[in-house]
Recover the amino acids of this structure.
């Protein structure tokens, strides 16, 4: 059998006992001594268990990474049974930061983590690797492609996903055969069943690892009073918890119960549950309280529905039934474009207006269909295939074609659009605390980090997702013909002045020295009709090293020493890291504010500075930039 054939077979075909032991509690905070923990693993193996589930981050902190895999290797080496029969599952895709877990789906991290897992397990090939979690900061396609490549290199036999969905499995299947899925499933959490994941994995011959089948320690105790499970437990002379595990396994023949244990007695109880045989009357009794049936009716196979033909290209609203996804980064201009659809009778569904989660829009859309409304437009960001999938599935269910229109707006232009929105509504770019406060009533104020995350995780739309048409709308910057003013934007520290004390910026107005040649050059530009503006970062205010009064006094002193008129002084007082505002250069906020307030023309606006952030600021605004030395001491400042 080739490696490819092996990978296509179900991982647990040779496993008789449908119980897997999860090692999380044996490897993390509060873990028992090695002797006690090893005894639990050996008890599971001696009882017939042949599946052990671990992860690279089953450990105490970042200095203990791969402990769980070392522990598995130690247990198998000391066990006297057939260790080659044991299926060891591990995971990658998280990292430890102190004692916290954080998603990390960068390809380089995954490669390093998997190489570490191979070494810790002492194997040449990992039997089964599961992607522990999806990293929203990394395009899912990049993460999936990275682990698929490692499988192709022979480092992994089977690949799977944890905490996943039907849409994610479909997306992953474009890169590799998904052999196993690990999601929570038990009588206290039936979401995997009700949302169709359990049914889908059965249809696609994907093994399902049901973790937390008892819902955790607190919920497991409640089962002792369960009106359905208690009578059944008495009938079989077992515990209600064993009936609960047996119910999961009975409802899903392709499932394995993934249990955690820190005591030998606990694992023996789980093994006993796996051996219970429920009959038809038991299933009927359980179903009255706990349904393992799918409560949705998605097109699980993903096959196209009759009538889902390709849509003709269109540059706006159409007369025929269709669902339109207007997608793009925050600030892309979706709100303006959607008006043309609303004006022609489309029903608009937008999370910012309605509230709730993105997926909450899908039942609202289907409600419109049920009432005979067949033209719907959804203007939301939809950065990933996963975020778009529920809308596509719903359109399929109702046999209504779906069009995707992608506003391809660069992030710098989105920054500018958001800043214009702020200036129009509030008069100035808002600071981090102000944005947080106003977002309660104004959802159009995303922080810069939100746009960066959108860009990092963006997956371009494609026809193979199920769209009848995918149309890219290139960005075009609007130019206000009334803005004709001439402006010279000037960084201050290092560009116009330096401190006498040698500090990076003055903390007192007397600590200011004007750099050579500044007044003469600036006077020439003023004579040519240019207005002067100071544009400065002053993060010393946020760090409390200097107050607003001293900053403003130093600016006044600088202007007086230059002996030239300065039309307006603007500065950002917010922290330099992380950037939580749009007014700290290189963010364009202060430039947008000055352009809007003073009607400055983009073509006749010049920025002078001494740092890379000044150059990036000018580039983002699309204005001319000059380095301070070239401008004041060279030929760039000649006019």
């Amino acid at each position: 059998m080739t490696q490819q054939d092996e990978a296509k077979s179900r991982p647990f075909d040779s496993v008789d006992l449908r119980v897997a032991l999860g090692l999380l509690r044996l490897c993390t905070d509060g873990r028992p001594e090695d002797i006690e923990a090893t005894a639990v693993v050996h008890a599971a193996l001696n009882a017939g268990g042949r599946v052990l589930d671990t992860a690279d981050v089953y450990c105490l902190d970042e200095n203990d990474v791969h402990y769980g895999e070392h522990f598995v290797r130690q247990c198998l080496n000391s066990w006297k049974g057939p260790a080659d029969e044991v299926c060891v599952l591990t995971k990658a895709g998280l990292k430890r930061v102190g004692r916290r877990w954080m998603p990390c789906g960068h390809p380089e991290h995954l490669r390093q983590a998997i190489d570490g897992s191979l070494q810790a397990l002492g194997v040449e090939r990992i039997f089964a690797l599961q992607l522990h979690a999806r990293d929203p900061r990394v395009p899912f396609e990049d993460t999936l492609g990275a682990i698929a490549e490692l499988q192709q290199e022979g480092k992994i036999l089977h690949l799977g996903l944890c905490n996943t969905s039907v849409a994610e499995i479909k997306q992953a299947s474009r890169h590799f055969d998904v052999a196993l899925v690990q999601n929570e499933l038990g009588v206290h959490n039936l979401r995997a069943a009700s949302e169709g994941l359990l049914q889908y994995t059965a249809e696609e011959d994907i093994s399902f690892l049901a973790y937390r089948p008892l819902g955790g320690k607190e919920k497991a105790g409640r089962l002792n009073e369960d009106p359905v499970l208690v009578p059944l437990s008495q009938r079989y002379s077992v515990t209600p918890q064993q009936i609960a595990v047996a119910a999961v396994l009975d409802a899903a023949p392709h499932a394995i119960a993934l249990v955690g244990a820190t005591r030998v007695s606990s694992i023996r109880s789980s093994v006993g549950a796996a051996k219970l045989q429920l009959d038809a009357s038991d299933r009927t009794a359980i179903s009255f309280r706990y349904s393992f049936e799918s409560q949705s009716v998605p097109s699980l196979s993903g096959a196209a529905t009759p009538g889902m033909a390709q849509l003709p290209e269109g540059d706006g609203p159409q007369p025929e039934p269709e669902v339109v996804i207007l997608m793009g980064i925050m600030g892309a201009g979706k709100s303006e474009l959607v008006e043309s659809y609303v004006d022609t009778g489309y029903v608009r569904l937008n999370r910012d207006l309605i509230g709730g989660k993105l997926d909450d829009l899908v039942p609202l859309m289907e409600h419109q269909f049920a009432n005979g409304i067949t033209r719907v437009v959804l203007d939301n960001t939809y950065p990933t295939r996963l975020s778009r999938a529920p809308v596509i599935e719903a359109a399929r269910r109702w046999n209504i074609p779906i069009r995707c229109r992608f506003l391809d707006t660069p992030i710098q232009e989105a920054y500018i659009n958001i800043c214009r929105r702020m200036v129009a509504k509030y008069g100035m770019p808002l600071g981090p605390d102000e944005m947080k406060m106003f977002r309660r009533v104004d959802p159009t104020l995303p922080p810069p980090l939100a746009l960066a995350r959108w860009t990092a995780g963006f997956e371009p739309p494609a026809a193979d997702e199920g769209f009848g048409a995918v149309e890219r709308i290139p960005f075009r910057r609007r130019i206000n013909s009334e803005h004709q003013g001439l402006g010279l934007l000037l960084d201050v520290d290092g560009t116009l002045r330096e401190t006498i004390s040698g500090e990076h910026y003055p903390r007192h107005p007397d600590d200011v020295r004007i750099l050579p040649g500044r007044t003469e050059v600036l006077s020439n530009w003023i004579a040519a009709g240019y207005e002067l503006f100071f544009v400065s970062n002053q993060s010393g205010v946020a760090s409390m090293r200097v107050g607003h009064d001293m900053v403003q006094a130093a600016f006044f002193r600088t202007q007086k020493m230059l002996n030239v008129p300065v039309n307006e002084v603007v500065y950002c007082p917010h922290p330099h890291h992380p950037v939580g505002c749009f007014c700290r250069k290189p963010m364009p906020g202060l430039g947008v504010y000055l352009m809007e307030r003073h009607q400055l023309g983009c073509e006749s606006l010049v920025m002078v500075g001494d740092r890379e952030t000044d150059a990036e600021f000018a580039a983002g605004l699309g204005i001319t930039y000059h380095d301070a030395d070239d401008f004041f001491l060279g030929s760039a400042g000649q006019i």
The two ends are 78 Å apart (CA to CA). Residues 297-307 have pLDDT under 50 and may be disordered. The CA atoms of residues 494 and 610 lie 6 Å apart. The longest strand covers residues 600-609.
